[in-house]
Amino acid sequence: MLERQQTDILILGSGGAGLFAALHAYQAAPHASITIATKGLLGKCGCTRMVQGGYNVAVHPADSVERHFMDTIEGGKWLPDQDLAWTLVTTAIERIRELENEIGCFFDRNPDGTLHGKAFAGQTFDRTVHKGDLTGIEIIGRLMEQIWARPINRLEEHRAVALIPDKSGEAVAGVLMIDVRTGAFRLVEAKTILLGTGGGPTMYRYHTPSGDKSTDGLAMALRAGLPLRDMEMVQFHPTGLLAGPDTRMTGTVLEEGLRGAGGHLLNGKRERFMERYDPKLERATRDVVSRAMYAEMRAGHTTPHGGLYIKMNHLDPDMVARQFKGMVERCADCRFDLVHDLVEVVPTAHYLMGGLMCGTDTSTELTGLFVAGEDAGGVHGANRLGGNGVANSTVFGGIAGETMAAFITDNPHWRSFDEDHVVAEIERACHPFRTSASRHDTAFNGLREKLLDAMWDDVGVIRGAAGLRRGLAKLSDIESELLATGLPDTDRAFNLTWHDWLNLRSQVEVSQAIATAALARLDSRGAHFREDYPEAGDLATSTYTVVRQAEPGDLAVTNAPVVFSIVAPGETILKDAPTAAE
């Protein structure tokens, strides 16, 4: 059964990007029909609510947007889209005021009443505004209240499975969804659509994002023929909790502020090791620390669960307990004592710097489709600074809402669907019901375990051509096994096995894009490190990768030159700062 409905503005995703887009769209076009569709429950799913550390913004008199910008560009190894990065750092100031004064968020303050800035790695100023170590819950909780107070429609527990083009193929006409509660397909016709589903590299053995993340948005964009940039740039957060294989707590983040506050990393021999890898020690950028940790692990200097340790017990215990209350409680849930003892950690897949290409107004090359948050690529380049993630989502989510409101004024009509495309996408989603071989949940568990191992072992923290080719071969085998795995078509309502199947297919498709881009990049930048090409190459001739799917299973990678629209390598926009040449 195919149900149909219409809305002026359709927002896919209910994280910081989606909720901000809805609020800004409503403010700009209060008479428009606005619908938020989310895979889970509004405000209870996604990654923004899981943000611990905070929000990067240059609000201190001694700081500046220029300084924040240079930290972002240098942290991204000169690969960010500089216009996007400048939009991020300048608009973040407006957004933090909006969060406080209009949305109602409470952030920690200094004794003089100014916003407290936490120390985060890779930054030249302590600018990470926060609410303890559970900032995301504060932001999403307040945003959710604002959404409930407005006539904004909600499609909860609705999974988007395909972007549906119009008959010309040059514009988007709507989205095909599955109502998880009934199993019915729903075709939502929209004048404009925001892709804000969040990326989430959950295809790795150790990962931080919530379990509902399966890279559906990027998979849909790939199948629509849209360009994804920087897909090889997968960020590993250095300190994922390592509590053994039998708990979903393994992989969840112990926030960067622990290292910023003076926490030490130790190997299995209880030796502090970062001095061998970077003079900034534990406050080096995430990519550097993760590689150092991986090198220690590969050398066999590991803890009982195969990881390393973080140590906080040399610091003031009252400070640790007060400032990192959430982290202390998280560790206690796994029988670790963060205040007084060592805690086992491991690098954990955290964020996709890559994503759908877009402009500063969040527009894409498909007319009517906009993108914000982790589904968008280009802002962070080769490495995201901690604290720039939630800033990115809220900044560009708000811009997207305003842009979409203006778009429907100029484009007031719904577009005609490509009905054949709708039929094909329904058939695609129902593939497991059309496959004769019927297997049980254990089959999916086995395939998922294969995916986790393939990506961690061959497309992980440290890469090489042989491993990447091996990983691509494994991904092809996993895809073939998945397509040969059928399901009984008895009851589609809350059929979680069906959704596991769909999750895995999206993850495999995006994993193939990551591995293909990683194989094509013959240098090492930020999160992408090739043992066979360890040098960064000439910064002045930097390129970024672009992945497209021409035909199903056929990915093409091209390289495009980075445009240094604001500052070139070796230069700075900071006043009175020496250049690299000096």
Key traits:
single chain; 7-stranded mixed beta sheet; 18 strands; 15 helices; 582 residues; alpha+beta
Can you describe what's shown?
The protein is α+β, with helices and mostly antiparallel strands. It has 15 helices and 18 strands. It is globular. Strand 17 and strand 18 form a beta hairpin. The mean pLDDT is about 95. The protein starts with a strand and ends in a 21-residue tail after the last strand. Strands 1, 2, 6, 7, 8, 9 and 16 form a seven-stranded mixed sheet that branches. A four-stranded antiparallel sheet has the order 15-10-17-18. A four-stranded antiparallel sheet has the order 11-14-13-12, with helices on one face.
The helix content, as a percent range, equals 25-40%
Determine the mean pLDDT: 93
Please tell me how large the radius of gyration is.
23 Å
* Tertiary shape: globular
By DSSP (H or I, 4+ residues per run), the number of helices equals 15
Describe the biggest sheet?
7 strands, mixed
Regions with pLDDT < 50 over 5+ consecutive residues? none
Structural class: alpha+beta
